[in-house]
Request: fold
Amino acid sequence: MDQRININKIESEAYKGMYMLEQYLKTSNLTPIQIHLIKLRASQINGCAFCLNMHSKEALQLGETAQRIFVLSAWRETTLFTDAEQVILEMTEEITLISQHGLTEATYQKAKETFDEHTIAQIIMCIATINSWNRIAVSTHMELI
Reply:
């Protein structure tokens, strides 16, 4: 598959905005592992090989286990993820698949029981950011790095 346009080169201001979102996420209440779980699960759903490749490598470097990455798409069938991570993964799936039913009231209530409002907002922003990156990477055929 041939790479298409390079938005970073031809519309660098747009990329600067995306990079600012990434910098914001680094200052959030989310742990680096939680951020990578969000990025990996959304990228699995969206079929984004570029982001899956990048965030798997980064998660492993941060101490994430290969086992958890391998079973991430079936997280409901394991005991490998904490209660907080399960809420984050459920939010990630529902928001990524927003056309199905969006963030359900049941999941939102679980989030409220687990996180404060700032953290919920940060989770939503992280999910929105990776979904944007996925759409950029998939539509432009970004090459694996």
